[in-house]
Amino acid sequence: MGSGSVDRPWLRFALRSVEFAAVLLVGMVLLAMLVSAVRGALGLTYPAEARGAMASVEMGVIMALIMIGWLRFRRFGWPTTLAMAATMLLPALVAAALTGIGVIALGTAMIFEHIAMFVLMLAVMLRRRDEFTIRRPVLR
Question: How high is the pLDDT of residue 8?
Fold first, then answer.
């Protein structure tokens, strides 16, 4: 094993967690700007009463697409990829529903959504820890 290699499974797991968080952050900034620009160029806006709910759903979809793209690039199989994408979508749908019916404000929804996404992502990673602690996942 060469120098700089990570041979401890839990260290590799931790590094993958940080990697996913960084990819999601950078990808979200870039894709959100692109989606916003396209929406603006097409003159598309959300109705005021649905703006909060739509913002939550839009963010969840963008983050799920980022997660799918990155996991497939990193050679993870479809079951893991879809489970991780679901960790982005489920909190978004719950936040959208709660915002849509006026239970919580958009700011609170976004905080809930981000915390839930990372907790669920960690849960999936722990459940499938063998895939997240090996050096190179096998594309399936």
Answer: 84
In a domain, 139, yes or no: no
Identify whether 2 is part of a domain.
no
Q: Is residue 116 situated within a structural domain?
A: yes
3 belongs to a structural domain: no
**34 band by pLDDT with thresholds 50, 70 and 90:** very high
Q: For the chain, what is the domain count?
A: 1
Q: Which structural domain range is residue 18 located in?
A: 9-39+49-133
Could you please report the per-residue DSSP string of the chain?
--TT----HHHHHHHHHHHHHHHHHHHHHHHHHHHHHHHHHHT----GGGHHHHHHHHHHHHHHHHHHHHHHHTT--HHHHHHHHHHHHHHHHHHHHHHHTTSS-HHHHHHHHHHHHHHHHHHHHHHTHHHHHSSSPPP-
pLDDT of amino acid 7 = 64
Global pTM value = 0.82
pLDDT digit string, tens, across residues 86-120: 999 999 999 999 988 989 988 899 899 999 999 99
